[in-house]
Design brief:
The protein has four helices and two strands. By secondary structure, the protein is of the alpha+beta class. The protein has two domains: about 35 residues, no CATH class; about 50 residues, no CATH class. It has a two-stranded antiparallel ribbon with strand order 1-2. The chain is rod-shaped, with a radius of gyration of 32 Å.
Length: about 110
């Protein structure tokens, strides 16, 4: 297919050419140019980011430290459950809240 370039219009790849190349919306293409020749090459989809790509090295250190702390809690038996019912879990949570709160002091009258 031959088209005529316009002075102010962008270069458009005709829909029939896109269909023949099996290009669809969202696909990425790479343009390669040499004098008198433009080649358009479909780029394969980028690989999904891995956990290492999503976090900075400092964030990764924090995450690793938190995971290590959690695993140590499990090894030391500092875990609760498993629970057979939601009610058992709620009772356990309430019991631990009571244990963790300091006892309230009674006000004495003067």
């Amino acid at each position: 297919m031959t088209i005529t370039l316009k002075a102010k219009a962008p270069l458009v790849v005709p829909p029939s050419v896109q269909r023949k190349a099996r290009l669809k919306a969202g696909d990425q293409v790479e343009f390669r140019a040499t004098p008198g020749k433009i080649t358009i090459v479909s780029k394969p989809p980028a690989a999904a980011p891995t956990a290492d790509d999503e976090y900075t090295p400092e964030q990764r250190r924090i995450i690793e430290a938190q995971l290590a702390e959690g695993l140590e809690d499990i090894r030391q038996g500092r875990v609760y459950g498993p629970f057979d019912t939601v009610e058992e879990m709620i009772a356990s949570i309430k019991g631990n809240i009571k244990k963790s709160r300091p006892a309230k002091r009674r006000k004495t009258g003067r």
